[in-house]
Design goal:
single chain, 602 residues, alpha/beta, FAD/NAD(P)-binding domain, Cholesterol Oxidase, domain 2, 7-stranded mixed β-sheet, 6-stranded parallel β-sheet, disordered N terminus, binds 2-acetamido-2-deoxy-beta-D-glucopyranose
Length: 602
């Protein structure tokens, strides 16, 4: 629902501004190799380079010599958890990060708030966002870029509550030191827009109290959270946490796609020896772990990538691995299980005036386990770039209601024409959204093939559990009260809308591939089921106690951990990125302390 492009004029102006402001940088990249003084480095840090620079290049045989000898840590995935983790470990140990995507620093789709929806809509192979559609019929996205989800998300920053930290068994003192480590570098206080103020005041009016002001803390009531966008609308990402790294000991390879983790299975327990990855030219390489005690491969590929990588490497449900002829290293039926996504439903509030763009700034944290937020200003003007958005194309809704053989081109075109008007109207306004904090419904992930570039099949089973559905119904009632409250209407100057009409906008806005029913706006339960979307907080797949130990070591094998959101049984705080980055730092410090004791110096 955020994939509507802005005016081409704005884009051209922006490109023009970029060209005139960076003339030296462009010329110096062109003359790479020559001695030039202030050389522009598109990768920002010297320790980042393309995967093909790895010395042991060979598609037929692996060798490891020269500076590519061995590493104390190999981190698979330079994402929201991987970057802070690698930066921390590199203080005292050699670390190799293998990231399948590129860098975020020079990518305008990532760097600017105003391009949020454009970046998400980009379904090309080089996009920082890799689209997938769960079997539930809901569009979703996973990050494919250094900095991970922090490069493609809405930027909201809010910590986990104390109860989450307690359930995780984490040391609260170290947690309290690790959050500020992230915040100092990349987190900002937002400048509230009019509509975010309207949301704040109407939440208070309908009883989501008290007002807790601007805070990173997770407290019941209404608050303003942090953001990784600065006051110029520029995004700061987990990749910037690499500024903390020891450049002598860190090496980050981009466009490095790990294909499998390699095990030595000759002993009593499988033991990791390294990983096989391919570079941007498709050549294979092997990176090896040092033989020193404590060396580890750490999987930080996220809730889709980590369970997928375990299975591709031979750890997972036996039947599934056999089906794809993957040699079994260790049977574990729990890999890929316990997947969950926080269901989100939205009410669209149309407006006659263009609205200032904002992502998430205000959040209502209710006692019923529901969060209320808003995103505004995605107006589609007549000058907008009208493109087809690949998997996210508005043709797709047709696919959910019309059998394949009846999808005639004329019908598709007619549908697009019809739909455009509705979108045009709806997207001058805002989305007021509610999402469930702790969904009970669970799903699973399974491989479709052995190609790591392909998405596995993911099922979340939104609203399968009746309690989830009941909570959504209550949440929609609450949001209906918010958008018809006095404060909201006074601020936004919108006409008081009939709630059913607003609900019908969400139904018609074509936001997922689920079949629609005639009773969608009469039955809130049906509305919840039919208009569910993701807020991209999916988690699980490598749960603690099932796949990893509390310190995130993979059960049953040596020298392998998983440190990312796949180990979470619930999404922390109102938005997980704060805690995922914190966890990268936290686990890095824990590992250093364990290995070095007092000498770690952290
Ligand atoms: C680990 O790194 C820190 C920072 O560079 C340093 O102060 C500390 O002495 C190192 N510890 C060991 C055991 O090398
Ligand atoms: C940004 O996204 C648009 C499509 O949404 C795409 O056409 C463009 O190439 C992307 N830009 C970059 C730098 O990736
Ligand atoms: C950690 O910080 C939170 C507030 O951010 C505070 O409530 C809590 O008491 C702190 N815990 C420790 C152990 O310092
Ligand atoms: C949306 O805003 C544009 C100006 O950006 C305006 O031209 C258009 O009429 C508005 N649409 C509606 C339905 O109010
Ligand atoms: C209505 O909004 C205006 C600003 O747009 C504000 O000054 C006024 O206090 C508001 N009134 C109420 C009752 O909220
Ligand atoms: C809505 O109508 C459909 C049939 O179109 C029916 O299967 C469903 O149970 C109804 N939903 C509710 C909540 O009444």
């Amino acid at each position: 629902m955020f994939w509507f492009l802005q005016s081409p004029m704005a884009l051209k102006l922006f490109l023009f501004a970029l060209l005139i402001s960076l003339p030296t940088s462009l010329s110096s990249t062109a003359s790479k190799g020559k001695e030039q003084k202030p050389k522009f480095n598109p990768y920002r840090y010297k320790f980042i380079d393309k995967a093909s620079t790895f010395a042991s290049s060979s598609s037929s045989s692996f060798s490891s010599n020269g500076r590519d000898s061995t590493y104390d840590y190999i981190v698979i995935g330079g994402g929201t958890a991987g970057c802070p983790l690698a930066a921390t470990l590199s203080r005292n140990f050699s670390v190799l990060v293998l990231e399948r995507g590129g860098v975020p620093f020079t990518n305008a789709n990532v760097s600017f708030l105003r391009n949020f929806h454009i970046g998400l809509a980009d379904t090309s192979a080089s996009s920082a966002s890799q689209a997938f559609v769960s079997t539930d019929g809901v569009y979703n996205a996973r990050a494919r870029v250094l900095g991970g989800g922090s490069c493609i998300n809405a930027g909201f920053y809010s910590r986990a509550d104390a109860a989450f930290v307690k359930r995780a068994g984490w040391d609260p003192k170290l947690v309290n030191e690790s959050y500020p480590w992230v915040e100092r570098e990349i987190v900002h206080q937002p400048k509230l827009t009019l509509w975010q103020k309207a949301l704040r005041d109407s939440l208070l009016e309908v009883g989501v109290r008290p007002f807790n002001g601007f805070t990173y803390d997770h407290v019941s009531g209404t608050k303003i959270g942090g953001t990784i966008f600065d006051r110029f609308g520029r995004r700061h990402t987990a990749a910037e946490l690499l500024a903390y790294a020891n450049p002598q000991k860190l090496r980050v390879l981009i466009y490095a796609t790990v294909q499998k983790i390699v095990f030595d299975t000759s002993g009593t327990r499988p033991r990791v020896t390294g990983v096989i990855f391919k570079d941007e030219n498709g050549n294979q390489h092997q990176a090896l772990l040092s033989n020193r005690q404590g060396s580890e491969v750490i999987l930080s590929s996220g809730a889709i990538g980590s369970p997928q990588m375990l299975m591709l490497s031979g750890i997972g449900p036996k039947k599934e691995l056999q089906r794809l002829k993957i040699p079994l290293v260790l049977e574990n039926e729990h890999v890929g299980k316990g997947m969950a996504d926080n269901p989100m439903n939205t009410i669209l509030v149309p407006s006659k005036q263009p609205i200032e763009q904002s992502l998430i700034q205000t959040v209502g944290i209710t006692k019923m386990g529901v969060y209320v937020e808003a995103s505004t200003g995605f107006g589609q003007s007549p000058e907008s770039i009208h493109t087809h958005y690949g998997v996210m194309s508005d043709k797709n809704e047709l696919f959910s209601t019309i059998p394949a053989k009846q999808r005639r081109p004329e019908a598709t075109q007619a549908y697009i024409r019809r739909n455009k008007y509705q979108l045009h109207e709806a997207f001058n306004g805002s989305f007021i959204l509610e999402k469930l904090a702790y969904p009970i419904s669970r799903g699973h992930l399974s491989l479709l093939n052995t190609n790591v570039d392909d998405n596995p099949s993911v099922t979340f089973n939104y609203f399968k559990h009746p309690v989830d559905l009941q909570r959504c119904v209550e949440a929609i009632r609450l949001v209906s009260k918010v958008v018809t409250s006095k404060r909201f209407l006074n601020y936004t100057q919108c006409d008081k809308q009939n709630v059913h009409e607003m609900l019908s906008l969400s139904v018609k806005a074509n936001i997922n591939l689920r079949p629609k029913q005639v009773n969608d706006t009469k039955s809130m339960a049906q509305f919840c089921k039919d208009t569910v979307v993701t807020i991209w907080h999916y988690h699980g797949g490598c749960l603690v106690g099932k796949v990893v130990s509390p310190d995130r070591k993979v059960l049953g094998v040596n020298r392998l951990r998983v440190i990312d959101g796949s180990t979470f049984d619930e999404s922390p705080g109102t938005n997980p990125q704060a805690t995922v980055m914190m966890m990268g730092r936290y686990m890095g410090v824990k590992i250093l302390r364990k290995r070095l004791g007092n000498k770690a110096g952290v």
